Structure formats: C-alpha cells, structure tokens
Amino acid sequence: ARRRRRALAGGDMGGLGGFGDGDDEDEEGDMPVNLQNYRGKLSDWIDTAPVQREVKKNFMRFLKTYVAQEQSPKPFYPMQANAMCRANLASLEVSYMHLSHAEPVLSIWVADVPKKMLALFGEVAKEFVLSIFPRYDEIHDAIYVRVKDLPISDALRDIRQVHLNVLVKTSGVVTRRTNVLPQVHTAYFTCMKCQRLNGPFHQDTDHEIAPSACIACQSRGPFEVNAAQTTYRNFQKITLQEPPNKVPPGRLPRTKEVTLVHDLIDNCRPGEEIELTGIYTNAFDASLNTKLGFPVFSTVIEANHIHKVDDVPGTGRFGGDSRLSDADREEMAQLSRDPKIGAKILRSIAPSIYGHHHVKAAIALSLFGGQEKVHGKHRVRGDINILLLGDPGTAKSQFLKYVEKVSSRAVYTTGKGASAVGLTASVHKDSITREWTLEGGALVMADRGTCLIDEFDKMNEQDRVSIHEAMEQQSISVSKAGIVTSLQARCAVVAAANPIGGRYDPSRAFHENVELTEPILSRFDCLCVIRDTVDPSTDERLARFVVESHAANHPVTLEEGAAPTTVPSSAPEQTAAEGATPQTATRGGAGSAEGDLPTDMLDMETLKKYILYAKSQAAPKLSEADVEKLANVYAELRRESANGHGAPIAVRHLESMIRMAEAHARMHVRSHVTDTDVDFAIRIMLESFIGTQKYGAQASLTRRFRRFLNKARERDDVCLHALRELMHWRRVMDSRDPNSAINLTQATPERPTVAVGVADFESKLRECAVGAEDAAAFYDSAAFKRAGYVFDHQRREIRFQQTA
C-alpha cells in the first residue's frame, strides 16, 4: 500500500518544498528532522515528538504559502479559511494534488497512515484558523481537515485487505441512513469506592476504552460514567451501494457501511450519488464471529470527505460536470458547434434497431431533458416521461436496454418484479440500534437519472398508483413506522407496455387498447404507439437490415480483422428531424454513400459524454413568441381531443411541449429556445396524439395539422428553390454568356459539373430567413438527394450530379 501511495504523490521526493520565511525557525532549538529517513513502521515513526513537530511545521508552511497558480497569485488556503469561517463551518478542504505538489512526503504519509496524520493536520488547521480569527474557538472547538481530489478511485467491489487503514476514494449511491446518534468522544469515570474522577479517556471508533484501575485508590472498580464531564459527538451511519450502471452484468451490487461523524452528518440522503474519501478500517463483530465460527472482522469506511456527484445539473453555472475531464469538455464543445449535431444524435440513438424514428426522437429528448424551474419550495419538473406502447417484437425492451447503457445513471426494473415499496421507499429495522431506518427504492436510486420500467401493464393497480407523485412532483412522501419524510425522485420514467390482448387494434379507441387509467397516462409527456404492420416492401428492407447486421457482427467476421459494424437503421434522406413516419426509412438510397454513414453517428461513449456536457452547460429559456405558438397548438389539440377517441390532452401536455422544446435546444447547447426547437416539439407531440387515434381519424387529423407536420418539407422547398437559382446563375457566370442559361434539371453527363460554395448558399438562405441548422438538415434530406446534388464535406461546396 505504501508503494501504491507513493505513486499517487508523483514528482520528486528529494525536497520538502522550502519556503524562506520566519516559520522556518526550529521550535525549542531542535535540529530539523529528515522525514524521509525513517526505519521501522511508519506509524511508530510518526508517534515520535520530533517528527510530529516537523510534520506540523511543514503543514503550517503549506497552508500559509501555497499558491494555486491557475486560480490566484495570492496564497490559496488563507482565502479558503476565510470562506470557511464566514459560513461558520468546521471543515477545511485540502486538495491532495496541492499537497503532493508542495509536500510530497506528507501526501504519501496521509494516504498510508491517515488517522494519525489527520489528527496532526487538525491541530495545525485549528492553530492556522485562530491566527486569522482568534475567537473562532468559541464557535467550533476543533477544525477538521478534509482531503479531496484523491487521484485514484476504487470501486466498492475492488476494495480488499490491502486497503485496510489507508485512505481510499470510492463512489456509490446512498440507500440507507440512520438517525443521528450521540457517540462518546471524551469519557470521564467516577470510582465508586473513593469518588475520584478518572479521565479524560479519548474513545476510539474501534473499541471502548475504560480505566483499568483508579488513579487514587488503585482499585479495579466499579466505575461509573460521569455524564456531566463526558463529551459526545454526532454519529450517523449510511449504506453505500454501487451505482446501477457500474454493476457488471449478472452480478449483485455491493454495499458498504460508512460512518459519519462531526459536521459530515446529514450531508447526503438516500438516492444521492456521492464520491467518498475516507479510511477503510475494520471492527470486531461478535455476532459475525458466532455465526461463522471463526474470527472475522466487519469492515467500515470512516468518512473524511463527501462530494455529491452532479448536484445541480442543467443550470449552466458550475462550469461543467465533474465526471468530464478538461479534454472531454473541449471535445464536446467542438462537437456542439457542429450544425448537424441534432441529426447525428438522432441517428445515434439505438442504431441497431430498424426504423421507429418517432420513438428514437422521443428517447433523445428524454435523455437530454428540459429545464426544471424552482420558485422557492415550488418546483416544476424538467424530466420527460415516455410510454412505449406497441405490439410484441417491436424492440420496446431493446430501447429500454439502450437507454440504460447510454444514461449516466439508470435503474432498470420490470412491472411484475417491482412492488410499490420496491419502486418508492421502504422502512427497515436497523440490526444494531433496533431503530427504523429508511431505504430508497428504484425511483429514489434513479434520482437525477432515468428509471426504466418494462412490462408496465403487468403491474398491480395499487403499485402503479404509488408512483403518481414521483412522476409529477418527483418526490416520494413516506409516513411509516413513525417516520414522516419526503425523498427526492428527480428522474425521467421510460416505460414499455403491451396492449390488451397483445396487439394494438387501431379500430378501437385508445383507452380500449390499454389497461392504464387516465391519471397515469396524463403523466407521460409522450405516448409512442408502435405497430407491427404487414408491408412487403418494408418487411424486405427490415429482413435485409437484420441479416446484414448479424453477418457484419459475427465473431468469425470480427476475428478476421473487420471492425464491428453498426448498420444504420435509416438512410440519411429520411431522419426523424424531417418527419419520416415509422418503418418507412430505407437503408442506402440514391445519392448516399454507405461509407460516410458511420462518420455521421456518435458512438455510445461519446454520446454519453455529450449528454453530460449539454446538461451542465445549457439552460434554455423560452421567448414570448414561442409561448403564443404553443398556446395556439394546445388550444387546437384540446378541441380535437374532446371530439376524438385518442389519448386525453390536459394542461400537462402544454408543459410537455415546453419541456421537449427546451430539450431540443439543450441538444444543440443553446441558451434560448428557437423556432426550430418549438416546431420539433410540436411535431413530436402531434405524432404522439395522432398515433393514439382511431385509424379513420388519423388521416383527417394529419390534414388538419399539416402545417406543423410538414414544416420540414416546406423548409426543403425553400432551400431547393434557392439552390437551383444559385446554380443557375453560377452556370451563367461560368459560361460568360447570359443568353445560354440552362435548366440545370436537364443537364447531361457530358456537361461540366457545377459547384457552389456552402458560404454563398447559406448567405442566400439568410435572405430567405433560413438558418444554418436548417441548411445542415437540408443536406441530408431526401429532396437534396433526389435533385442530384452532392455535398462535399472536404471542399465545403455543393455539386450538381446527374441522377441515374
């Protein structure tokens, strides 16, 4: 373990980082001690008085003089102490990287012998704070040094015997939390024979310390605890569990008990994901020994520092998610400036599943999420809930599995295997204190993530009612065994269900096809009806897609040197952004190059990082014009909903359109919602509403809302007209004869190819009030390919090419 911690410190250990000032004077005239030159056990070496004085002197010099060059030329930790005292706190956070840079020996020692080193650091920190605020000991009688930024993080399942009594860093989700209990800190005992007060005795967390004999009469007792003189400290236990997305397939998540003392209590609650730095230690457990029949010690982590992961996502105020490195943020920022990023993301959603563009668009919006609004204690959710309702064999469960893999935090469960308490929260009796403790369920574990529920229709009605509050208010109220509290469940719910009888019947009303009540349906922002229709042309393309996918990803093919191939589920000329209907996209197509398709898709790891980046950077805001358009669409939907037999439309669906527009803007890392974002949200909502109608009503509703559904088609007409006009004048200019204007649509292969620069084309589009993002979508549209145009990425130009 010592060699492992030396590797953490890095740098040269030859010097102790000399800083010439008055603090270098040796106390009491002692000679300086070479901290590196020690023999025997390190813990015994630290117990000697000269070494302790040298450690304190070096750490005090570090606190007074260390300068973090990237932040300020002034000493860093005096500013940190000022901020700590202004907040009336008792914890001084010290970066391990700062300590390893300035005092590498101390950084290694605090990792190898943390208990003794942190005690010395605490004494120095108190002296350091009192030098700035002399009366601060009247507020807190001790200052605790919290070590953060430990460079090596171990998973809970990887912590072993070599980590005992050293500083470790791990992460997990808090599942249980006990009440705050008083723990003896300094004990005094009264001898019952001579009434002499014995003490103080400083209690350790491992075992109880009591006097062996009275200091006055030398008797061995009996002794009684002096309650008036004995001091106590706050004590709390939490249970840390591996995050669901980090558990290997087929394994159970590991848990570990964590003890919190002093000011660390109540710093986290069930459902929150934390990064924990602490001391991995062992304790004697008599019940465990009795049960197993041989000596076994239980292990526990004594917390030193707690950091909440992704505490407030989507505010755009914190400079990025802590799970992304600086290189990742720079790469994601470059990616966000790509005008085609929206189309790339939609293509990258479940690329192994054929078709279902409306489902992929809804899932993409749910992954990015809208902007939550908090007004005092009132909160409006920003997460987007989706219900996938469809026939068997339409990849509903595969969609859920994909979301589980790409989401930074996801919990997967099934309707039959989940009960009300399993989804919300349960109350258990603690085995040690015999008190009732609270344990969060799947929705609490998925806080700030996604909860995936398969076979949603198989749940009992009582269990389904229990998640009503979690889906709208995103909280879970508990009133059991004398515990009255509320847990946070700020997560998106993506559920999959089958219709009554197994298959969806479009000739019947929506409520006749599903066994779900209106209150639960209204809490879903988007209802995706997936039908398995018989179409020879579509079935042939689907079969070819499946066969090629299996052939390309066969283990024998991969062993021969070919890279794994992800066959795109749709051609570039019909993406979800352009109103393609389900199961209508073809693979390949005129004017498309299959070799270019993988470059227009993001791999799963890049997509996961981009979602984290977009959530931490973008906080989209609606404008007044957008609100008016959404209100008009909502009024029309309400009018049609009253006459139809589809899903009911409530005021929640107006909020749903707002959330989806914000999610589309966040997908492009924009601070304001544009007209394109609103149109996209309206189209997704209309497809959801029309898909739930009877077969006869769908055609009339499609005609009624054609101006919204055909928005992309109108944009393509404008872009195509502008491009043809520009190509026409380019041919005229090249021929230098104004009278030889040619209709380019009648060009022959013998005529020279005409090229137009992208900058000239987009300048022409700006005159027509068409933005660069719409131009990027036009390059991938079917109209662009059918007209015989080719977009050259390298030369940044558009060429005309005669179609076959």
Distance between the termini: 70 Å
Mean of the pLDDT scores? 75
Main-sheet strand order equals 3-7-8-10-9
Q: Estimate the helix proportion, in percent.
A: 25-40%
The radius of gyration computed from the alpha-carbon positions, rounded to a whole number of angstroms, is: 33 Å
DSSP E strands, number? 24
Largest β-sheet summary: 5 strands, mixed, barrel
Structural class: alpha+beta
Strand residue percentage: 15-25%
Give the overall form.
elongated
Topology summary:
Elements: H1 2-9, H2 42-46, H3 49-65, H4 76-86, E1 91-95, H5 96-102, H6 104-112, H7 114-132, E2 144-148, E3 167-177, E4 181-191, E5 197-202, E6 223-225, E7 231-241, E8 255-261, E9 273-284, H8 286-292, E10 297-308, H9 326-336, H10 341-348, H11 357-368, E11 373-375, E12 378-380, E13 386-390, H12 396-406, E14 410-414, H13 420-423, E15 425-429, E16 436-440, H14 442-445, E17 450-454, H15 461-465, H16 468-472, E18 475-480, E19 483-488, E20 492-497, H17 510-513, H18 518-521, E21 526-530, H19 536-552, H20 555-559, H21 604-617, H22 624-643, H23 651-667, H24 675-691, H25 695-704, H26 706-709, H27 711-735, E22 755-757, H28 758-767, H29 772-779, H30 782-786, E23 789-792, E24 797-800
Parallel strand pairs: 1-2, 8-10, 13-20, 13-21, 14-17, 17-20
Antiparallel strand pairs: 3-7, 3-9, 3-16, 4-5, 4-6, 4-7, 7-8, 9-10, 11-12, 15-16, 18-19, 22-24, 23-24
